[in-house]
């Protein structure tokens, strides 16, 4: 969907983005991750020409962006900026209707779509359409910012730290909703963040950057289990174990598990094979009595299993050992 | 209470004129304000796009604002003449700065992330400007317009300096004539206008977006209405430009009217600007003083006062009595000049300063040397004598002479407060003890300060000795201020025309002028 070839951006003599090549597939969520100042925002803005390339080329949907009018290019790409960036003199309704107006939609279409997207974002249209941004909480503003970027159903959406300004609890609840958002499922999303957790939760693939260069591009699992270089290793160091549990699915551990045969436990939680190991361990670590047991659903090839926390940990340990061999 | 009654009386009697001046004042303000919005707003926006130009543009607008208004008006006369045009242009220049600056800062202070969000969503530069930047800059921008409006109401009083009317006519006329009700009749409406403008603009700012358009439309329709004031045709044979003092004083134009049955087509102008106006042929007849050096500079002809309408104006120093009592040695020094300067000599001295551009101090020194009166300053450390003067050359020269004499003959120190506006300001300063001495004229003392009834003034005017005696006695009694013996010259009012025009029309006396006008 997006092809970036040898993209370079130089500010006076400083290379903010240095010879980056990158393909973003249709309907994938790609996360640009890295420390502050590594060139994530710059890369993102190169795509909608808020910043012009110094060298290289970028194609969106098969068309070179240099050969299009910037305004027209931007109207076809959703854009969410940090801290929502809502216009304070516009109501929620007017904020969301900005791009529809630019595209010349008629009034009734604009109105139905505006209400619809707001409801999808979990805000009652009746209650919020006429409010001004200053009357909304940070989380609500963020939702309106997302609604504004998605109202015209653009195939590509760029997001620059969309959850940056939120407290951890609001953030994790929005993150959760976000991942399950139908409106985003079929879109190509490029999301910038410096938060590792967020990157691993949302990204189909992660592009880890440093000093304007790509350090590693791959799935979360590849980054955790096959770091490309010392930088990647060091970057993920602190959270390595948690990330390992997060990227592994229960089904992947199947061959390392010793099945329990006792079914006497009363507190049984059933999970599908696609559930992450992290989720399973978190559920098991709750200190209640009787201790819960995970019931892993049977599949066509594997039987159902009952697992305690020690079973899972032993399996993870074996998995990693085999990988390292 | 008396003053209040006098004020109410004045307003009642002059209500027609007051209404006219108020409307003129509003017209001047609105037209100039509209002009500066039309020019200043786009200019302010332009420099938000070409920031390199912002320093230059704001700098120039700032400098424009520092030019003294009289100087600016004088500078504009050769290009725009007199009347509303230069007044509006000057007001326009003065109000440009707040409008440009507030437009610029208003737009610049819009959060850059909002601008980026707007562009990121696909707005063109124009859409960004009209939909995001301008609405968000509006409060600051409006503050600029309000500042400019209030400023313009104030400065528009100066329009009276160049015959553009407005409430300044009452204010400056009142100051010139020592007429407090008249001053108030101009100043109070002007203050109320400033408040009204500010209030209306504040209301306009708070209008909902939908109602702004009709309001703007109404405003745009109002402008031609006010402009029409200034389109009244003027086809007089000869145009007179008179200073407010001359126009209002019984011994000035009103006296002239009575003596000669002369009816001139007049406009009111600042004394500092009449010469320039007549020189540029914006007017044909002006009033002035018979010893003014500018007569020579601008090649004017003084029309002979063949029916002695103008009373004698013999110059002499006015001194507070306590000063003479404390410093008896001063009297002798002050009288050194008495009777030594005649009319043509004074005109010549004035000319040397006005045209030959010598400093009043040099001219005074040269004259004293020629008369053998000059002595080097003794640099004494005695008490300080404060000399005052009105704003014109002759007074500067006389004050200089006096200053040099006091320093040369006594141990007193001298400081000068020159440029004290008109008669009222000078005399009030003297009466209040803020100055000790200033040059005054017998006729002025009789008419302006003593407010002598016309009949008595008329009879006194016939005999200069009698008049001097009358004036000096009265001053002593009423103010404890002494008239020193006259200096010798008679600086009376005079009507003047351009020499060439006067020659062509064969006008040498005021009676000739009357005949020409009646042909
Ligand atoms: N307009 C500019 N002029 C000069 N330097 C710039 C400009 N914009 C960005 N830079 C520099 O380019 C580098 C990359 O900036 P960028 O905004 O892409 O960082 P980032 O990865 O988004 O960081 P953060 O997480 O802090 O937002 C930084 O060192 C920054 O100082
Ligand atoms: Mg950034």
TrEMBL record, chain A:
Spell out the protein name for this chain: ABC transporter ATP-binding protein
Alphabetically ordered keywords of this record: ATP-binding, Nucleotide-binding, Transport
* GO MF assignments: ATP binding
Homology family: Belongs to the ABC transporter superfamily.
InterPro entries (UniProt xref): AAA+_ATPase, ABC_transporter-like_ATP-bd, ABC_transporter-like_CS, P-loop_NTPase
Q: Name one Pfam family in it.
A: ABC_tran
User: ABC transporter domain: from which residue to which, for each copy?
Assistant: 2-236
- PROSITE patterns recorded: ABC_TRANSPORTER_1, ABC_TRANSPORTER_2
Lineage, top-rank taxon, reads Bacteria
TrEMBL record, chain B:
Q: Where in the cell is it found?
A: Cell membrane
- Which range is the signal sequence, renumbered to this chain? none
Q: Which keywords label this protein?
A: Membrane, Transmembrane, Transmembrane helix, Transport
Pfam families recorded: BPD_transp_1 (PF00528), OpuAC (PF04069)
Domain ABC transmembrane type-1 positions: 22-201
The record describes its membrane topology as:
Multi-pass membrane protein
InterPro entries in UniProt: ABC_Gly_betaine_transp_sub-bd, ABC_transp_perm/SBD, MetI-like, MetI-like_sf
Q: What is its main location?
A: membrane
Presence of the UniProt keyword Transmembrane helix in the record: yes
Residue intervals passing through the bilayer: 26-46, 58-81, 87-104, 136-162, 182-202, 214-232
Family note: In the C-terminal section; belongs to the OsmX family. In the N-terminal section; belongs to the binding-protein-dependent transport system permease family.
Instruction: Report the protein name in the record.
Output: ABC transporter permease/substrate-binding protein
Q: What is the lineage of its organism?
A: Bacteria, Pseudomonadati, Bacteroidota, Cytophagia, Cytophagales
